[in-house]
Amino acid sequence: QCMWFITLSTVLLTLLWYSIVGIELYHVKGDTGTYLAAGRTIFSGTIDELRTPVYPILCQIFTLGKYFNGMYLLSAFQMVVFFVSVPYLYKTIALLTKRKTVKCVFTCLYAWDLPILNYTAFIFTESLTISSVVFFAYMLISIILGKASRSICIAMPLFLLFMIMLRPFCICFVPLGLIAYAYAYHKKALRHT
């Protein structure tokens, strides 16, 4: 299967890339300190007005462990989320086309993009945001095409809320979600008339 080959090769490419570049170089960057500080304060009951809560909470949870470096664990978590998003991109494209070449090429463009691979090691929201957009696109297109299960229809607004709490920019996806629901409802109403 092309999808599993791409996913496995992405894991291997990531390991090779990080062994060449050196993963230690990428853990702490500009905004990292503010996420860590916001994570420490959020569990004491104080909300940082400059940061949405999801990523600081993740930073705090992953840095609680005393046996491992929390930044490595957070980077590993981001990598796993990215690896899981690769087959979902393939499935999203499969909803739109039956051409195997198109599915494989577009999935490879996403999965083997070195800047995206670099983001999986950075301690900022971009990595999870990029992967989240892939999951959201899968849910959105499934709903529009009428191929979504009830669980996807229920999960999409909750996932969209998660995305907004991860990165406020994601609020721009709300109209897309509303349009998808309206279209699916209209399509279903037309079938029953």
Number-wise, the strands total 0
Nearest-integer average pLDDT: 87
Characterize the biggest β-sheet.
none
Q: Tell me the series of helices and strands, N- to C-terminal.
A: HHHHHHHHH
Distance between the termini: 41 Å
Please sum up the structure shown:
With 193 residues, this protein is an all-alpha fold. Helix content is 72%, strand content 0%.
Task: Explain what this protein looks like in three dimensions.
The structure is a single chain. The protein has 193 residues and is mainly α. 72% of the residues lie in helices and 0% in strands. It has helices at 2-21, 32-42, 54-62, 70-96, 100-111, 114-119, 126-144, 150-166, 174-191. The chain starts with a helix and ends with a helix.
Q: What labels describe this entry?
A:
193 residues
How would you summarize the topology of this molecule?
Blueprint: H1 2-21, H2 32-42, H3 54-62, H4 70-96, H5 100-111, H6 114-119, H7 126-144, H8 150-166, H9 174-191
Helix pairs in contact: 1-4, 1-5, 2-3, 3-4, 4-5, 4-7, 7-8, 7-9
